[in-house]
Amino acid sequence: MSGKAIEQELELYGHGFFQTVGDSMEPLLHNRCSTVVIEKKKDPLEKYDVALFRRPTGEYVLHRVLKVLNDSYIICGDNRLRKEKVPEEWIIGVMAGYFETEENNYISCDSRRYRRYLSTLIWRRRRLWQRRQIRRIIKAPWKLAYLYKSFMKGE
């Protein structure tokens, strides 16, 4: 579905069903297997909402809000470490729920199952950071002392 069709569907119906592409929201959403239900953005987003936004390049991205600022958000995929500042005007929708695969039942963002997943996010991000550091150490072992110091400081 083209970008204009996504925005037109949200404008026309207030919501839409879209297949995910990419692995940035793993393990919650799976590449070309999961279907998300996106609602047109009405209210300001809250921490941990999953926002659909469009970059100036035209690329659509579905990532999680980590921090709410005055006129923007700090957003990052669940399977990513790089955070991005996204202005309010880029946001076009928010995830209301999803189908993990075609065979699964609908999972609402208000459900107990989804809230349980949210409770694991900090642990998952820490593990992702650790795996990335291990890969970096294998490539450049001399960086070990620097990485240890930064980890102990909580950076």
Overview of this structure, please?
Helices cover about 30% and strands about 30% of the residues. It is α+β, with helices and mostly antiparallel strands. A hairpin with a 3-residue loop joins β4 (about 60-70) and β5 (about 70-75). The radius of gyration is 17 Å and the shape is globular. The mean pLDDT is about 90.
In short:
With 155 residues, the chain is of the alpha+beta class.
Q: Helix and strand layout, with pairings?
A:
Elements: H1 3-13, E1 15-19, E2 35-40, E3 50-54, E4 60-68, E5 72-76, E6 84-87, E7 91-99, E8 106-108, H2 112-118, H3 121-139, H4 144-153
Antiparallel strand pairs: 1-2, 2-7, 3-4, 3-7, 4-5, 5-6, 7-8
Biggest beta sheet attributes: 8 strands, antiparallel
| Uncertain stretches | none
Helix-residue proportion: 25-40%
Q: Quick one: CATH class of the largest domain?
A: Mainly Beta
Keywords:
155 residues, alpha+beta, Umud Fragment, subunit A, 2 domains, eight-stranded antiparallel beta sheet, 4 helices, globular
